[in-house]
Design goal:
By secondary structure, the chain is an all-alpha fold. The chain is built from one helix and no strands. The longest helix has 27 residues. It starts with 16 loop residues before the first helix and ends with a helix.
């Protein structure tokens, strides 16, 4: 069992490359969206 198959990722295949890519895209996409939203709100561009 790898370290990625522990904690909240307690399902079979949690350490598969596809699951890691999907998780990474979701996390980075969320961070990117929050940064975009913060900049739009702070500077009111447009």
């Amino acid at each position: 069992m790898s370290d990625l198959n522990r904690g909240i990722m307690k399902f079979k295949g949690a350490d598969s490359p596809l699951a890691i890519v999907i998780s990474t895209v979701l996390v980075l996409g969320g961070i990117g969206f929050l940064l975009w939203w913060a900049l739009q709100t702070a500077y009111n561009v447009g």
